Amino acid sequence: MKISRWSMPLRYSALTASVIGLVLTVPLVFWSPGFALLALVFLGLVVLGVWDMVQRQRTVSRNYPILAHFRYFLESIGPEIRQYFIQSDTEERPFSREQRTIVYQRAKNILDKRPFGSQLEMSSEGFEWMDHSIKPVEIQDPDFRITIGSRCAKPYSASVFNISAMSFGSLSANAIRSLNEGAKIGGFYHDTGEGSISRYHREPGGDLVWEIGSGYFGCRHEDGTFSEEKFVENATLDQVKMIEIKLSQGAKPGHGGILPGAKVTPEIAEARGVPVGEDVVSPAQHSAFSTPVELLEFVDRLRELSGGKPVGFKLAIGHPWEWFAIVKAMLETGRHPDFIVVDGGEGGTGAAPLEFINRLGMPLIEALLLVHNSLVGTNLREHIAIGAAGKITSAFNIARILALGADWCNAARGYMFALGCIQALNCHTGRCPSGVATQDPVRGGKLDVADKSVRVANFHRNTVQALANLLGAAGLNHPRELGPEHIVRRVSKTTVHSYMDLYPFLEPGELLNGHEPEHGVFRKYWSCARADSFDPPEFILKLRETKLR
User: What is the CATH code of the structural domain delimited by 145-500?
Assistant: First the structure.
């Protein structure tokens, strides 16, 4: 059938209907003013349709005037539709409904039991569980503590489960207040994030770990370099229990950032020590040190300036030779941090480029194993405490990480859920519906500090109690007794392995005995790592030269 050149394509049907509706309703307005509103609606649709056809930015809108906006709307609420109506309770995107629900229930201090058995597919590859004992024990005191900085003048007794780094600026004022008040109630620590110590950290008075990033916020000169004088002012506060140098983070390792001047409010400027309304650059690397030895000298200097408080660093593992270079610097200089926090590549509370979120940085298990094994193999493990962070929301998450060598765990998103976060995935827009990750004073102001701080404390207490229950069922009395033999993973339909058999573990001093390590990454990179440089090994540089020829 031949189609007339003047026939109206179906894709213009919405605009055509709007024009017809406008033509028909305008005369009716003179008959009854009640039709005025309907005429205005059709007029608005006609104007929108005409604009769609003349604008040049969106081809879909030009081809489908008016109709395209229905697509854009449905696309905009796609994540919510999938989260609320399509995803199963156990599908992790990035946290499953089951994971979030257990946090909500423990935060609200309500029943967290489940009926009718597990919803998980226990025969699927990757399923993990914890072995129990035929001789379980009852743990009387579940307040598990870890001493950090035993050789410091002011060692710190930390909980086994704490709040990971989240800055004021990323989180709202009331969210920071609630987290710190919850930490005070529950007796655990609150990491400030690299945004430094704000007035909202100070008001409740809970224990703080002050994180210092490459921007040196709270301890910087006007040119962005490190200021010892300003460092001492914050580091000697009684509320500050430890100092953490951020080398990199799991959400966006190796990435700096710019805080636009429009977001630098007087309160953020006060906390970070920067001018109000000016862009603030957080470099990708530190200016206070450039080699492994200089890093350790910086650690020692901060410990001295703080009056003997534990000082350590946080990092996401990338190039293994760079981490080995730090370990070799410890061996050669006799200097070492009091603690190391390993941040897994699956971490991230705010916003980061997609490639950084998905494809950059070593996941927590592999990163933790590398750090733990390196310190064991050099007989440094007994001197350095290890914390770990990366998608931890439950007691089993904690147990499996402690079994691989960590002394304690931190969580960020878990505590955000305790504050009421609904995983709307709007953290980077400022439109957080729960008032957690926003600087909008109206949205953030609706978050009730008195209520949420108790929920934060409840989540901590009930999760640690659940950990105690797991340990007791396994016949253990303290998290330090957990080992890789206690956690099991299914690697196929018919094969299971404990972590002890699944992962390699070095013997104490194995890297010091002069023999070539058996494990691949150590065999390849350990011998060529240098304490005085983060540069790649010579054989890698030669490979690069070959490619460039």
Answer: 3.20.20.70
